[in-house]
Amino acid sequence: MTYMLLIYTPDIGRDRTDEEWAQMAEPFMAYNEYVKASGFYVDGAPLAELSTATTVRLRDGKRVITDGPFAETKEFLGGFYMVECPSIDQAIELAAACPAAAFGSVEVRPVMDGPSSVDAG
Fold first, then answer.
1. Enclosing domain of residue 78
2. Does residue 12 fall inside a structural domain?
3. Is 49 a domain residue?
4. Beta strand 2-9 with 105-110: parallel, antiparallel or unpaired?
């Protein structure tokens, strides 16, 4: 079964020094190697900072575009891993090992089987 591990973290601010960023990234680099070594890794990536987000909605047939986050939130989606695991318990084990689980959260969500609406076009 394929699972998305969605990594939510508080806004950590962008005014850190290069040294502070490197120190903060170190446990995530180790986790990245751990997930890849597990044999369950399919894909994954960090996402650009929250201020670069664009939210798109259709309201009354009109496109509404909002730059940045659409709503105030204490945690935001900062990255993801896609893993192929034999059970949700294994996916939960991988999520629990993520450094962000200690100060944010990691949502484990199964990817639905079946035809993709993206493939239909």
1. 2-110
2. yes
3. yes
4. antiparallel
> What is the per-residue pLDDT for 18?
83
27: enclosing H helix or E strand = helix 18-37
Indicate whether 115 belongs to any domain: no
Between CA 113 and CA 104 the distance in angstroms is 28
As given in the structure block, the two tokens for residue 65 are: 């575009």
How many domains are contained in the chain?
1
Give me the tens of pLDDT residue by residue for the chain, a chain 121 residues long: 999 999 998 876 667 788 888 888 899 999 999 999 999 999 999 888 878 888 888 999 999 998 876 666 678 888 999 999 999 999 999 999 999 999 999 999 999 987 665 665 5
47 vs 59: CA distance, rounded Å: 27
CB burial string 75-100: b at 16+ within 10 A, e below:
ebebbbbebebeeeebbeebbeebbb
Please give the pLDDT value at position 71: 62
In terms of Cα–Cα distance, which of 33, 114, 43 is closest to 84?
A: 43
**pLDDT, tens digit, for every residue of 57-66?**
899 999 999 8
